[in-house]
Amino acid sequence: MNDEHDERNIDQERRRKVQNFRVHIEEEPAEEMPETTISSYSNPGEAKKRRESFPDAGAAERAKLAHKLRDREKGKKNRNFFRLIWFGMVLLFSILSARYLVAGMNDMLGVDRQAVNVTVEVPKNAAADKVTDLLYQVGAIKDKNFFRFYSRMTKAPQTYDGGSYQITTGMDYEAIINSIQSSQNRVDTVKVTFTEGMNAMEIAEKLEKNGVCSAKEALKAFNTTDLDKDYDVLAAIPGTSERYYRLEGYLFPDTYWFFKNEDPKDAVEKLVGNCSNKLTKQIRQKAKDEGMSVDQLLTLASMIQAEAADKTDMYRVSSVFHNRLSSKDTALLHLDSDPTTIYPYRQRSQIPAAERDSYKSKYDTYTVVGLPAGPICNPGLDAIDAALNPDSTGYYYFCHSKDGKAYYARTLAGHEENLEEAGLK
Question: Is residue 70 part of a domain?
Answer without folding.
Answer: no
